[in-house]
Amino acid sequence: MIEKHAGGLPVEKACAALSVLRTSYYRWRSTEPGPRKVYDGILKATIRDIFFEHHAIYGARKIGEVLKRRGFSCSRRRARRLMDEEGLMSVYRHRFTRTTDSNHDLPIAPNLLSRDFSPAGPNIAWVSDTSYIPTTEGWRYLCVVLDLYSRMVVGWSFSDRNDRHLVLKAYAMAFDRRRPGKGLVVHTDRGSTYCSHDVQAFLRSHEALASMSRKGDPWDNACAETFFKAYKTEWVYPYVFPSPDEALSRARQYIELFYNRKRIHQSLGYASPFAFEQAG
Fold first, then answer.
1. 155-196 pLDDT tens trace
2. What does the pLDDT look like over 215-240, one tens digit per residue?
């Protein structure tokens, strides 16, 4: 404060107003910051760049990983301290409501996946789930299909209705993009949209096998639910979508440009889904 206002206020008066000895002020001015303090300043500037480059969603653990990749030496504790000093806090986590309707008489597929979330390669096992997106014009629904090998979103769809057509569009995109071979396992919950005759016929026509979670057990489809927890936390709750078109546009940005290609995953050795598949 004294340094800032020195041009218009005598140092003597400024020191008196702030109860600071003039000798202390002049000693502070003549003291050069140590190498650790200088490095902290460099780290703070870099941390701010990383934080906002990744849409304010990374905490100290992931910030530390990105710093290491950029050639900086910084522990997670130091990263957390510097983030606190800069007032940088990752977005707050919210709970979200499930959209599954399992109260139906449609056939239920067996649980072929059996919580094996680490297939040996791509297009061996996929998972799918659906969640709601709030907009000022009512609910919209997002369905995604993820390849468990890389956690990449290989297919998705967006609609004002949570019905079998939403699932079929996501499946169509996924099968068109990936062209999987015979025997692919597609795991979902027991929702009526996934159990519908049209959706099951689609899987059979592509020689894929349907797999479904046990009733009331969210851990059986944990990877798909984890995607939506991240999506809601990082991309939905910080914003109010003024229209369904805006919600659709941001869903496309998150999935295609950020999540698949840029967002690092601890389970993938801090690689993005795209980078993980390229390296494999």
1. 999 999 999 999 999 999 999 999 999 999 999 998 899 999
2. 755 567 888 888 998 898 888 876 77
Helix (H, G, I), strand (E, B) or coil at 147: strand
234 φ, ψ (degrees, to nearest 5): -90, -25
Give the pLDDT band of residue 202 (cuts 50, 70, 90). Answer: very high
Give the sheet arrangement for strand 138-147, strand by strand.
152-159, 138-147, 125-135, 185-188, 209-212
CA distances from 4 to 28, 33, 69, 156, 208 (A): 14, 18, 37, 54, 69
Q: Which residue has the tokens 């530390």?
A: 64
Q: What Cα–Cα distance (Å) separates residue 254 from each residue in 51, 56, 67, 262?
A: 16, 13, 23, 10
Percent of the chain with pLDDT over 70: 89
Task: Map tokens 């510097």 to a residue.
Answer: 82
Give the other-Cβ count within 10 Å of 6's Cβ.
13
Kindly state the average pLDDT of the residues 259-273. 93
Coil, strand or helix: which one is 57? coil
The SS3 assignment for 133 reads: strand
Could you please report the per-residue DSSP string of 175-199? Answer: HHHH---TT-EEEE-S-HHHHSHHH
Burial class (CB in 10 A: 0-12, 13-18, 19+), 201: exposed
Record the tokens describing residue 256, joined without a space. 């295609």
Both tokens of 237, joined, read: 């709750």
Contacts within 8 Å (CB) and 24+ apart, 170-176? 170/128, 170/143, 170/144, 170/145, 171/128, 171/145, 171/199, 171/202, 171/203, 172/202, 173/145, 174/126, 174/145, 175/206, 175/208
